[in-house]
Amino acid sequence: MEARERGAGIDSGSAAVPLRERLIFALDVADRAAAEHWIRTLGDSVGFYKIGMELLASGAYFEVLDLLARHECKVFVDLKFLDVPATVAAAVRGLSRWPVHFCTIHAQHRAMMQAAAEAKGALRLLAVSVLTSIDADELRADGDPRAVDALVLARARAAAAAGCDGVVCSGHEAAAVRAATAAGFAIVCPGIRPDGGGGDDQRRTVDVRGAFAAGASHIVVGRPIRNAPDPRAAAEAMQAQIAAACG
């Protein structure tokens, strides 16, 4: 399927997002065959997929994007663009011709965010605040004395002012971001760990209920579903938790 202008998407405001579209599965796979396996395995338990850097390296990125669209799934392109404003704007403009719902850029450069927002068309632009694998110790080691929550909030405000449609942050910062931004601003939370977390590279983790109680509009889940004995049952269990938290 050729690149095409995408249609109008859902309102990503917390109250307007359909319950079954609040769960985004991280399709972190190495090739198209693995992607097809997970789409078949999860079936209608998931209708929103994130595709990122690992799949990009396979050469099948846009084939999988198109496959998801043909399955009537929402697509979240998570490539975290960060470059000079003109380059990022051009990439976002090109991506907006595909059936993409969310796309990420880093929230570290106001002019870049503004340029991307002007080029995004109907695509919804998410600014990545601070990766959920980073904690205060790592920030200090990198020379930034700010607390993680203060930095996330500052970047979320800058992203909203620049015209972005939402932010990616952990559930730990979601309540402050929700309070500081307008209705309809998407808050997408990765680092979801139903068992409380630990044992992997995610540091600022919350469970499903905690994320939505804090104001998340969506959650991104990968390993807790992929590594479950029955991945589809795990996804359905999360859908039930989302319905209980948001219904």
N-to-C SSE string, H for helix and E for strand: EHEHHEHEHEHHEHEHEHH
SSE class = alpha/beta
CATH superfamily grouping: Aldolase class I
Uncertain parts: 1-13
CATH class category name? Alpha Beta
**H/I helix tally:** 11
Overall strand count: 8
How are the strands of the largest sheet arranged? 1-2-3-4-5-6-7-8
Q: Which of globular, elongated, flat, extended, rod-shaped describes the shape?
A: globular
Total number of distinct structural domains: 1
> How is the CATH topology named?
TIM Barrel
How would you characterize this protein structure?
The chain is of the alpha/beta class and 247 residues long. It has one domain: Aldolase class I (TIM Barrel), CATH 3.20.20. Helix content is 42%, strand content 15%. It has eleven helices and eight strands. Strands 1-2-3-4-5-6-7-8 form an eight-stranded parallel β-barrel, surrounded by six helices. β7, α9 and β8 form a beta-alpha-beta unit. α4 packs parallel to α5 and α7 packs across α8. The radius of gyration is 17 Å and the shape is globular. 42% of the residues are buried. The N terminus is likely disordered.
In short:
This protein is α/β, with parallel strands linked by helices and 247 residues long. It contains 11 helices and 8 strands. Helices cover 42% and strands 15% of the residues.
